[in-house]
Design brief:
By secondary structure, the protein is of the alpha/beta class. It has one domain: Hexapeptide repeat proteins (UDP N-Acetylglucosamine Acyltransferase, domain 1, 3 Solenoid). Helices cover 24% and strands 27% of the residues. It has helices at residues 3-8, 18-36, 42-52, 116-120, 184-188; strands spanning 54-55, 59-61, 65-67, 73-75, 79-81, 85-88, 93-95, 100-101, 106-108, 110-111, 125-126, 129-131, 136-137, 142-143, 148-149, 154-155, 160-161, 169-172, 177-181.
Length: 192
C-alpha cells in the first residue's frame, strides 16, 4: 500500500512521503494566493478555493483559510466560515448545507499516536469529520479526528469536540458535551 492508501484506510501513514508532500504544497500555495487577495475580491477568491475543494453551491470562506489537501473537503450549500479557519483534511471532511463557522475554528482529521516511539517515527492517522446541515460552530471551536456533529446542533465557543454530538442540541466545554436540547422556545426568544 502507498502512504496515501494507508491514510485513506485510516491506518498509520507517513505524511512526509513525496506524493503527499507535493499535494500539501499545492494546497498551501492555493490557500496563500487566496489569502493575499483584497477582501473585495470575493469572486476571485472563491474561484481559487474551488480549485481546492468540492462545493455544492455558494460559499464564503473569509481569509485567512488554510488546509492540507483540499480535495477531501466537501461543502454543502450556503456555507459560511469566518476568519482563521484551519481544516487538516487528510481524511474526508463532509460539511452539510447552511453551516456557519465562527472565527478561529479548526477541523482536524489528522492525529498522532500517543506512543512516543511511533510518533517520533513521523507516523500519523486520519479519521473523517462529518458536520450535519444547519450546524453552527462558535468562535474557537476545535473538532478532533473522527467526530460527527448532528444536524441543527450548536457548539459553544471555545469547545473541543472529541466525540460525536447528536442532532438538535447545544453542546460545549472541554471536552465538549451535550448541555441541552434546542427547543421551540429557543426560536421564540428572537421573535420580539
Amino acid at each position: 500500500m502507498t502512504e496515501k492508501e494507508k491514510c485513506a484506510a485510516g491506518l498509520l501513514y507517513a505524511p512526509e512521503e513525496p506524493e503527499l508532500t507535493a499535494e500539501r504544497l499545492r494546497a498551501k500555495d492555493l490557500c496563500w494566493r487566496a489569502n493575499q487577495l483584497l477582501p473585495s475580491a470575493r469572486d476571485e477568491r472563491a474561484a481559487l478555493l474551488r480549485e481546492l475543494l468540492h462545493a455544492d453551491g455558494v460559499f464564503t470562506i473569509e481569509p485567512d483559510f488554510w488546509c492540507d489537501y483540499g480535495y477531501n473537503i466537501h461543502l454543502g450549500r450556503n456555507f459560511y466560515a469566518n476568519h482563521g479557519l484551519v481544516i487538516l483534511d487528510a481524511a474526508p471532511v463532509e460539511i452539510g448545507d447552511d453551516v456557519m463557522i465562527a472565527p478561529q475554528c479548526g477541523l482536524y482529521t489528522a492525529g498522532h499516536p500517543l506512543d512516543a516511539e511511533t510518533r517520533i517515527r513521523g507516523l500519523e492517522y486520519a479519521y473523517p469529520i462529518r458536520i450535519g446541515d444547519g450546524v453552527w460552530l462558535g468562535g474557537g471551536v476545535k473538532v478532533m479526528p473522527g467526530v460527527t456533529i448532528g444536524a441543527g446542533s450548536v457548539i459553544a465557543g471555545g469547545s473541543v469536540v472529541t466525540r460525536d454530538i447528536p442532532a438538535g442540541v447545544l453542546a460545549g466545554g472541554v471536552p465538549c458535551r451535550v448541555l441541552r436540547e434546542i427547543t421551540p422556545a429557543d426560536r421564540e426568544k428572537y421573535r420580539r
